[in-house]
Write a structure and sequence with these properties.
Helices cover 48% and strands 6% of the residues. A hairpin with a 6-residue loop joins strand 3 and strand 4. With 233 residues, the chain is an alpha+beta fold. It has a four-stranded antiparallel beta sheet. The protein binds a DNA duplex (16 and 16 nucleotides) through helix 12.
Length: 233
DNA sequence: GACGATTTTCCTGTTT
DNA sequence: GAAACAGGAAAATCGT
């Protein structure tokens, strides 16, 4: 049964739907047909109580809409026709397919989805208080904390960042523009570029948050950065 | 409103 | 030549 939900199923949806169709054009108003929950107030209990694989088509779309609302993402960048699929199909999407479908919001949404899938938590779930959490990832106000928290979620960060030497706090920016886009989404600034982001990172050399590493796209946490050490988080 | 910290924007020059 | 780095300068933003 699971085999029936395949890559081709996902692609077939893209062929029968206009990629630019809006949410309501494609799905109508969910309130009309489907019982709804108050995702704004009961978001966590709903989205984490049911594994994404068991979401209905409308759950998938409600989740997308909810994320757009919650994180102030631009829903116009999402091709909702590509998401006329159920949860199992959603989970079977490759990262590439997901990013194609979700546009510039893709990295961010993929990160959230992987969190729910693998940990059963969403960004709005309180988890262990002693280590940086996905909640912190959303709420940390500083760039270096944003970078740190992305690094602490290696399975979900979409390969944007990776450790070169975890013990030394050395990491590499793998997808520079994707990182900039993600930071831009976070700051609601669609003009963010890696050039600007890297300038902000270089200011951290002065304050000891980062230390210079003479290699391209490689940075190192400095003595004044905290929370990145494996045994101290 | 002033102030400081942080980030953004723009820039020129250098390095890889 | 392109991408990334380095860092000055000024402006913007935000919290206090």
């Amino acid at each position: 049964m699971l085999d029936s939900v395949t890559h081709s199923t996902f692609l077939s949806n893209t062929m029968v739907c206009d990629p630019l169709m809006s949410w309501t054009e494609l799905f109508g108003t969910t309130e009309d047909v489907y019982p709804t929950c108050d995702h704004q107030t009961d978001s966590d209990s709903f989205w984490t109580s049911i594994h994404p694989e068991y979401w209905s088509k409308h759950n998938v779309c409600e989740w997308l809409q909810f994320c757009c609302d919650q994180y102030k993402l631009d829903a116009n960048c999402i091709s909702f026709s590509h998401f006329n699929i159920n949860g199992l199909q959603l989970c079977n999407m490759t990262q590439e397919e997901f990013l194609d479908a979700a546009g510039i919001c893709g990295e961010y949404l993929y990160f959230i989805l992987q969190n729910i899938r693998t940990h059963g938590i969403s960004f709005f779930t309180d988890v262990e208080e002693t280590k940086p959490t996905n909640k912190d990832y959303l709420q940390s106000s500083h760039l270096w904390e944003f970078v740190r928290d992305l690094l602490l979620s290696p399975e979900e960060n979409g390969g944007i960042l990776e450790w070169e030497d975890r013990g030394q706090g050395i990491f590499r920016v793998v997808k520079s523009e994707a990182l900039a886009k993600m930071w831009g989404q976070r700051k609601k600034n669609d003009r963010m570029t890696y050039e600007k982001l890297s300038r902000a990172l270089r200011y951290y050399y002065k304050t000891g948050i980062l230390e210079r590493v003479d290699r391209r796209l490689v940075y190192k946490f400095g003595k004044n950065a905290h929370g990145w050490q494996e045994n101290k988080i």
